[in-house]
Each structure stands twice: as structure tokens, then as C-alpha cells.
Design a protein that fits this description.
globular, 3 helices, Nuclear Transport Factor 2, Chain: A, 7-stranded mixed β-sheet
């Protein structure tokens, strides 16, 4: 009898833990989707809401003499999105989400293809670090790669 109770307790814990993890993964994905939806809509407030106040944005810059890392401020990125001309359409299309969560920390690996006015510009991978704060999941760090090819479909 005690073995059955113990086994039922363990199974209940695993089911509950899995449910919480899936909920966190969905919430992390929703933050990232909201970021890119805001970018497509040129909604600076929506873009800014995805980030923590002191978030860091970086990109790997491929050069013949060796890779370097460039840093952008979130506030500059938000301003650029908000001031994008009406006729310019920016569309970052995520092809996959690989999300891992440990408590209040999450990481997301998202291959993408980027289009400007419907024309392919570049592709790469975003690596997001997120933290669950009092107001929900926020991006605290993002670094990406950018290239013309090869690109995943």
C-alpha cells in the first residue's frame, strides 16, 4: 500500500512539473513572438515590452580576418523600429524554437530568415536568454548570427 502511495505521489509530481515547464516554455515563446510581431507592426512599445530594462543585444559580425561581436542598445533598436518608414516592411520568420527552462531562467535557440519588403535579406540564429521577473518573462540577452547562406527552410 505504501509503495502505491509513493509511486502515485512521484507520478503526480512529475506530471505537475512537466505541466509547469510546458507553461513556461509557451510563455517564453510568446515573448519572442511578441517581439517579432511588434517589429512587423513597427510598434516600438510592444518591442520594448519584450526586454528587461538593462538587456544586451549583440550580433556576430563575420569578417575575412576573423569574427567580431557588435553591440546594440535596446533603446536604439526600439527607436529604429518605431521610426521605420511606413513603406518598409520588416519580417523575421522563426523556423523553430528550442526552449530550455530552469526555474526563473530560460534559453531559446531560434533559427530565422529575415525579409525586407518581402525580399530575402539574410538568415541566421538568435540565441535568447530570458529571466522570469515579477512582470513575467523578459529578454535579458540576445546574440545572433547573420549570413546570406546556407539557410534552413
Amino acid at each position: 500500500m505504501n509503495k502505491r502511495i509513493l509511486i502515485c505521489g512521484i507520478l503526480s509530481f512529475l506530471v505537475c512539473f512537466s505541466a509547469f515547464s510546458q507553461t513556461d516554455e509557451k510563455e517564453v515563446k510568446a515573448v519572442i513572438q511578441s517581439l517579432f510581431d511588434g517589429m512587423r507592426a513597427k510598434n516600438a512599445e510592444q518591442v520594448a515590452a519584450a526586454f528587461a530594462a538593462d538587456a544586451i543585444m549583440q550580433t556576430i559580425i563575420a569578417k575575412p580576418e576573423g569574427n567580431t561581436v557588435g553591440t546594440n542598445s535596446v533603446s536604439d533598436f526600439v527607436k529604429r523600429i518605431g521610426s521605420t518608414p511606413a513603406e518598409t516592411q520588416l519580417d523575421e520568420r522563426i523556423s523553430d524554437y528550442q526552449i530550455n527552462v530552469d526555474g526563473a531562467m530560460a534559453t531559446a535557440w531560434t533559427p530565422y530568415r529575415f525579409y525586407v519588403n518581402g525580399n530575402f535579406s539574410h538568415c541566421g540564429v538568435n540565441s535568447f536568454q530570458l529571466v522570469k521577473m515579477s512582470e513575467g518573462w523578459k529578454i535579458v540577452y540576445i546574440i545572433d548570427t547573420r549570413r546570406k547562406e546556407p539557410c534552413e527552410e
